[in-house]
Amino acid sequence: MENSEEIYKAKVERMETVAAGKEPDRVPIGIATTYFPAKYAGVSYENMFYDNNKYIEVGVKFLRDFDWDAVSFHRSFESLILGLALAGYDADLAIGVAVNSVLGGGASHDILADVYSSNPGREVGANIESQWVLEKPVMNADEYDLLIEKPFDFLMETVVPRAYKNLANKSSPAAVGALLKMGQEVAKFPGFLMDFVGKMKEEAWLPYYYALTPNPLDLIGAFLRDFDTLSLDLYRMPEKVKKACEALAPVLTAVGKLTGKISLDVTGSRRVFCPIWYNTYLSPDKFKEFHFPYIKQIVNGLIEAEFTPLMSFQGRSDHLLEILKELPAGKVIMWFDKTDLVKAREVLGDKYCLAGGMPSSLLIGGTPEKVRQYTEELINNLKGNGSFIVSSEFNGMGDAKVENVKAMTETVRKLGNY
User: Fold this and answer.
1) CA atoms lying within 13 Å on the CB side of residue 349
2) CA nearest 114: which of 135, 96, 129, 99?
3) How many CB atoms lie within 10 A of CB 32?
């Protein structure tokens, strides 16, 4: 019987092989899901978000029972902008702050009182998934030049007080107290990280990703302007938007490399999560003008540093598939949300690793028999035509039926061998 170290090494090899566009020993399962492991373990979403002991407990139970090839159950992104604002001051501190809410839990949300998210057990019910809504821009239309000329100063002096209610007046007791509390959380983080990773690796855990970097246009839309407002900016001030993206791209490339190194050192994974949110709403021409050049810059920078960009194309990307052929084959994973993987394979060819194919709606509302039939068709359609990873939409299967997730897992194990 294989021990956890041997199983772990086999998973690393399998994921490295498939990412290179080659056939592994079998089709892997790689999924990001914050909430399903909590549901499976009988733990509230609130506890999954805020109690790190419960977080570890949930992860161990899930890994032991499902043993996927790669899985990530991260939390949220509230502290990212504060970390980015610190990047011009201290890179290590900046990364520690930026990833604290992603890996370290909901404490950042409570301490900083961000304007972005509504979390389980706080603004929404204990078993309601977190919501991300920027109700109004924290950067004004006439402030692009400030972002372009001095991005770190602008983020710290202007955006941070607007994005975090407890930092609105940086000399106030509330702000000083929040920063001290945040410092305490960041100081705890390395110990928690090593404890978490150690216990997970005992269960042969390999993360789908443990490093991340956004791209410029999505960062502006999700964290600074909101996407509706940004849509107008593309027409009203296109050159300023592009210059802002040019200013942010090298910074975000560096974030990807720094978090990628941490991930590689700690977990053995080379994948860097590159979420792409705004693709659904852009025409091919607008995508090529405002979005894709900076995505490519980041992706190429990560590849040069020997990382694997895990490109999460959320929403629909059917209209962009021809453009994506400009990405280097065998060097990226294209993880599609709602795009038909069979169509994607027809357009992109067999040299790219594709991920996706399993709709969360089926796992949530279907039956085990329907899940088995769908999974069998998915494998039959894709296994012999290039490498692929069975996955669901990003963080979309929280309320899935346990019996359906088991049916998917068993079918992949049964039929996925090459």
Assistant:
1) 11
2) 135
3) 23
How many Cβ atoms are within 10 Å of 187's Cβ, its own excluded? Answer: 10
Buried b (16+ CB within 10 A) or exposed e, 145-161: ebbbeebbebbbebbbb
Cα four-point dihedral sign 118, 119, 121, 125? positive
**Mean pLDDT, consecutive 10-residue segments, the chain of 418 residues?**
86 96 96 94 94 94 96 91 93 90 90 95 94 92 97 96 96 95 92 91 93 96 95 97 98 95 92 94 96 98 98 95 96 96 95 96 97 97 92 91 98 95
Judge whether 48 and 38 are in contact, CB under 8 Å.
yes
Instruction: Say if residues 46 and 120 touch (Cβ distance below 8 Å).
Output: yes
Using a cut of 0.90, tell me whether the model's pTM lies above it.
yes
| Residue (of 78, 77, 73, 76) closest to 38 by Cα position | 73
Q: What is the DSSP string of 359-409?
A: -HHHHHHS-HHHHHHHHHHHHHHHTTSS-EEEEESTT--TT--HHHHHHHH
Question: Residues 64, 69, 70, 73: is their CA dihedral positive or negative?
Answer: negative
